[in-house]
Amino acid sequence: MSFFRYRTLDEIKAEVERLGLSEQIRFASEVKKLLKPIKVGDREIWNSLGYHPMEGCDGTADGRPSALTWRRYERLAAGGGALIWFEATAVLLQGRANPRQICLTNETAKDFEAMLKMVRKVHKEEFGEERILCGIQLTHSGRYCFEKPIIAYHDPALDKKRKIPPDYPVISDSELDALQDAFVNAAKLAWKIGFDFVDIKQCHRYLLSELLAAKTRNGKYGESLKNRTRFACEVIQRIQQETNGKLLIATRMNAYDGPAFDEHGKPMEYPHPFLYGFGCDERDPLKVDLTEPITWAKEMTKLGVKIINVTMGNPYANPHIGRPFDKPPVDGYEPPEHPLVGVARHFNATAAIKQAVGDEAIVVGTGYSFLRQFLALAGEANKESGLVDIVAVGRGALAYPDYVRDLLERGQMAVNKVCLAVSFCTTLMRTKEHPLKQAPTGCVPRDPVYAELYRQISLKKQR
Ligand SMILES: Cc1cc2nc3c(=O)[nH]c(=O)nc-3n(C[C@H](O)[C@H](O)[C@H](O)COP(=O)(O)O)c2cc1C
């Protein structure tokens, strides 16, 4: 099914109105404010547009960036967006979600340093001055580790999806204590090699995101919100201490987990009340309850977090929530709602977090790629109303890395370059039949490198 059939701004506006979403999704007539500089901490960057962290699954077996990783970041550096958020990077090899996830350790740090230098150099060559902000997302994949899942508690539906038996061990408090060191070490390395910020990743149900919803876990990392946020809180404090407060700290955080969905696009069975999601109404997990995400976001600003990137969902259990799409990935299902409803859910959550934290943090918005050539106009409307500070794209970064350059030079985005939200990137990500046990990912419809790769993989499957 293809939902996106809007050729003009009036057509998409009419659809938004028909769906009753005009309050949440609005469009400016031109992009102006987003192209102006913005202050982040004590830095000024040259516009308020950028790129979300997007894993390319193209690292080497020992966690270093490869030639394909370099190519992706080179395209972003030349694309014009001022915020370059480097992808999910494991803090230790066992924490990787796939065998080609990059990993920041003492052994690999030099490779990251070289790639970061290249990004700054390319940007300067293209735009004259270097006024970008580069950060890196630090992660532990928790239950989605490819070698051995690490779970913080049993979640009936997520366990079922990953075939985790009821007697599977849960990570202990002391093991979690020890894991904090890996985050702090990786953050120190990131600082040393010149990243402007680190993102303590708390989203998409990887380990720290799972902890945010650890209502059924006993001990010091479970039950109360204070305990559930303890890991991130202590890591943030330790990084501040060890970098003398000189490294900007960011977080990409789920404002809403949502329940798991089955292969038919139906929410899976859960006991009531629903105690397995962050930002979910316990009486009905299909409804968002931002009480705790807002409390935690405010608390994080007190801890000194300066950038909050608001996101939601679980790519393995409810992909339509995180990235509204027209066509599902191989392991997905047809969208159970109009994708614009998903976009509106993102905008609502971001606006609520922005309103709660005010000027204490820069808030980055997600969920824009589905809007294709109209995304920057929607971002501009949000920015004008103070509902977001920086607009970034995820899938759009793979399809159309130079979208900011086009906005700067031509005043609009090109229809023939936008993300089509047809999920080939996720399908490649899920492809393990590859000599390196993981296919790299990129934009199949827009980037010939990945079109060819996809063709080869499809041919192999047919044989
Ligand atoms: C191929 C692929 C890789 C992704 N990698 C990451 C990642 O490394 N870290 C992260 O937080 N989100 C990741 N995401 C999620 C995106 O950053 C983003 O939140 C999502 O695609 C929705 O934004 P969009 O509508 O602009 O695409 C990934 C998504 C896709 C499809």
Question: What report would you give on this structure?
Answer:
- This protein is α/β, with parallel strands linked by helices and 463 residues long.
- The protein has a single domain (9-422), classed as TIM Barrel.
- Helices cover 37% and strands 13% of the residues.
- The protein is built from 16 helices and 12 strands.
- The strands form 3 sheets. It has an 8-stranded parallel beta barrel, surrounded by 6 helices. A two-stranded antiparallel sheet has the order 1-2. Strands 8-9 form a two-stranded antiparallel sheet.
- A hairpin with a 2-residue loop joins β8 and β9 (284-288).
- The longest helix has 20 residues, at 173-192.
- It is globular and about 55 Å long.
- The two termini are 28 Å apart.
- Bound molecules: flavin mononucleotide.
- Residues 52-55, 87-88, 137, 203-204, 252, 311, 322-323, 366-370, 393-396, 425-426, 429, 441 line the site of flavin mononucleotide (FMN).
Any chance you could write out the topology, listing elements then pairs?
Elements: H1 9-18, E1 38-40, E2 43-45, E3 49-51, H2 67-77, E4 83-90, H3 109-127, E5 133-139, H4 156-162, H5 173-192, E6 197-200, H6 207-212, H7 225-228, H8 230-242, E7 248-256, E8 280-281, E9 284-288, H9 291-303, E10 307-312, H10 319-322, H11 339-357, E11 362-365, H12 375-384, E12 390-393, H13 395-399, H14 403-410, H15 424-429, H16 448-462
Parallel strand pairs: 3-4, 3-12, 4-5, 5-6, 6-7, 7-10, 10-11, 11-12
Antiparallel strand pairs: 1-2, 8-9
Helix pairs in contact: 2-3, 5-8, 9-11
